[in-house]
């Protein structure tokens, strides 16, 4: 009896040690592949979202191999494996549906590519520069200089506006001026001088000249669109210079009112 128990303990200890060794080897290989992807990605200048996809695939495959190796070492019967998988699937389905939906949505965002890392986007009522696209969340660097993690289910179900084109953030904001002032006054005494002053101060940063034009009018005011151009990936510059341009415009409008 004791011999059988000793043999069982030794056998299970051997399997446990073998499983630990297998997981350790898989982990070392996983880290090596991740390092290789990071290094080669920089050398080949791959887009960050491509690197994210490759890293995600390696992570999923590594987990599957590790899980399968442990089951094989402990000789888990296939029917028990199927039953456990079914129970696990049911538990995930009932208890973690939001997580699963996020994962599915994450794959959709990575594959469909409505935006890439460093693009400036508006997702529903949210906006910011995309810093990371993971399997669960999309991280945005917002105008409040904070990092916001948006669930990928929200991303997939929202209207997405990508403001980044040809390597430039094309950011537009609106300003309203009353009908007491003519279009010529607004254009020649407010907008154009403001754009010139802004460029004199900041165009050494290799910025394209801002644009302003009348979009529409209602019975209360005339609505102008003002567009500022910032290099892709420079959201911090946008968050700094867009208020500067608005301040210059308001200063020149005050001069018009008092003149």
> Structural class, from secondary structure content?
alpha+beta
Question: Could you tell me the mean pLDDT?
Answer: 83
Distance between the termini: 106 Å
Return the CATH architecture of the largest domain.
Orthogonal Bundle
Number of strands: 9
Q: What is the helix/strand order? A: HHHHEEEEHEEEHEEH
Low-confidence stretches: none
User: Per CATH, what is the topology of the largest domain?
Assistant: Helix Hairpins
CATH class of the largest domain: Mainly Alpha
Strand order of the largest sheet: 4-3-2-1-5
Identify the overall geometry.
elongated
Oligomer: single chain
What is the number of helical segments per DSSP (H or I, 4+ residues)? 7
Helix content class:
55-70%
The main pleated sheet reads as:
5 strands, antiparallel
Instruction: Provide the domain count.
Output: 3
User: What percentage of amino acids are in beta strands?
Assistant: 15-25%
What is the CA-based Rg, rounded?
A: 28 Å
Give a short summary of the structure.
The chain is α+β, with helices and mostly antiparallel strands and 259 residues long.
Explain what the structure shows:
By secondary structure, the chain is of the alpha+beta class. It folds into three domains: 108 residues, Helix Hairpins; 49 residues, SH3 type barrels, CATH 2.30.30; 91 residues, 2-Layer Sandwich (Alpha-Beta Plaits), CATH 3.30.70. The chain has seven helices and nine strands; from the N terminus they run H-H-H-H-E-E-E-E-H-E-E-E-H-E-E-H. The strands form two sheets. A five-stranded antiparallel β-sheet has the order 4-3-2-1-5. Strands 6-7-9-8 form a four-stranded antiparallel β-sheet. Helix 1 packs antiparallel against helix 2 and helix 6 crosses helix 7. The model has no long low-confidence stretch (mean pLDDT 83).
